[in-house]
Amino acid sequence: MILYIEKDVLDYPQTEKIISLFPSASKVWIKNYKNIFDKSIPLHQEKSLIIAKSRWSAIWKTPDNYWHTPNTYFFKTSLNCVFDCAYCYLKWAFKNDMQVYFVNYEDIKREITNLVISSGVERSFEETNNETRKNNVISKEQISPLQSKWQIFNTINKNGKIHFKDPETSSGWQSPNIWCQEKNSTLWFYSSDYSDILWSNKISWFLSEFVPFFEKFEGVMMEVRSKSTNIKDILDLWFVPKNTEFAFSLNPQILIEKYEKWTPNLDDRIETINKLINLWYKVWLRFLPLLPIKDYKNIYGEFVAYIKERIDLEKVHSSFASWLLYTKEDYNEILKKYPRLDILYRLKQENDNFVRCDRDARDFFYNLFHDLDENCMICMDD
Ligand code: SF4
To answer: What number of other Cβ atoms are within 10 A of residue 134's Cβ?
Structure first.
């Protein structure tokens, strides 16, 4: 194992934490991660990761009409993913698959704070935050081991009440203010567009840094996207955040096996979702990318029936569906790199700048997922 470490990040606490995870790794001191990351590394290269500083803006605006509200942004704290989805745009976005962890979290948080303040939605509710967190805290005695946590909450749910005990005052069960009012003005920050942040939390400690950070704000939400089932790190936060939504991507098992290499299987993802929604975490179901493979109508029809049967959709915060979609430029790039990838040949180029499944498939997917959830947000392009 090789750790490439920028000299500039030596003193960051995050750097120390990552180094401590790999005590026998060789360390190579570098000036700028791009000197390595932007080069094609041969496949036989020893396993490695890069610890670096984010020197440019970590935040960028999403395209118009992108999901929740008009005020949505991506932000990045790491690059590259351990999973290997055949359709993933990371395959051609970067020259190699080394993972990069940016460790100057305080700079990134400052940038987010400035954006929140300048947007006008921010009403820095430090006091509200303290109160809300206090009411949502779960005492360690109550939920350790994890198994007992499920039992406690399942019992409460059967009684139709969702209460958490305040461990500081032990003053009985209190109703937490879990659900945040989401108005059109809510500012959304999407993490993990360049990595699977829940999986990589083992190395990045992203959740314990950024979930409490986002609790400071009113009218601001963060979304953590993942295919990982690393639920332990979410539960280890010891509170149910009001400003973070956990979004899990789902696809039929047959497609997971064929196109989503090394990702958890469908049943494990469903189990993770169910554990979280039964604890009243905000969970977003992301049905994507919908793939117009042979016999897709039957495969997706059965998949949706399976989801209905296995997940209590009443407890799901929101859902989203999107077919596989590339810009023409990206499509040509991936086709050049993976000319034998069958799903690419099932997409059509239309009169705009996008390549996607045909109208018949889009109508089918649209009706199917609206039938599953009438509020399901469907891909931005149609
Ligand atoms: S999990 Fe997401 S980021 Fe990772 S390879 Fe698959 S599509 Fe790409």
So the answer is: 16
| Distances from the Cα of 359 to the Cα of 102, 290, 303, 325, 336, angstroms | 41, 13, 21, 13, 25
Nearest atom of ligand 1 to the alpha carbon of 90 = 8
Within a domain: 210: yes
Q: Please check whether residue 47 lies inside any domain of the structure.
A: no
Cβ atoms of 123 and 181 within 8 Å: the answer is: no
> pLDDT in tens for each of the 382 residues of the chain?
999 999 999 999 999 999 999 999 999 999 999 999 988 766 556 889 999 999 989 999 987 767 667 789 999 999 999 999 999 988 888 888 899 999 999 999 999 999 999 888 765 444 444 444 444 444 444 333 333 333 333 333 333 333 333 333 333 333 333 333 345 678 999 997 889 999 999 999 999 999 999 999 999 999 999 999 999 999 999 999 999 999 999 999 999 999 999 999 999 999 999 999 999 999 999 999 999 999 999 999 999 999 999 999 999 988 999 999 999 999 999 999 899 999 999 999 888 888 999 999 999 999 999 999 988 988 766 5
Tally of CB atoms within 10 A around 290: 28
Length of the chain, in residues: 382
Q: Would you say the CB of residue 85 lies under 6 angstroms from ligand 1? A: yes
Rounded to 5°, angle at Cα 198 from 85 and 134: 155
Task: For residue 333, give the CATH number of its domain.
Answer: 3.80.30.30
Q: What is the pTM (predicted TM-score) of this model?
A: 0.83
Structural domains of the chain, count = 1
Going from the C-alpha of 235 to that of each of 93, 133, 195, the distances in angstroms are 33, 14, 21
CA of 375 to the centre of ligand 1 (A): 25
Question: Which amino acid residue places its CA nearest to atom 8 of ligand 1?
Answer: 88
- Asked if residue 81 has its Cβ within 6 Å of ligand 1, the reply is yes
Task: Count CB neighbours of 88 within 10 A.
Answer: 15
Structural domain of 267: 54-126+174-378
Query: What is the atom index within ligand 1 of the atom nearest the CA of 227?
Result: 1
Task: Assess if residue 269 is contained within a domain.
Answer: yes
Alpha-carbon distance of 382 to 369, in angstroms, equals 14
Supply φ then ψ for residue 231, to 5 degrees. Answer: -70, -25
Is residue 178 a part of any domain in this protein?
yes
How far apart (Å, rounded) are the C-alpha atoms in residues 315 and 308? Answer: 12
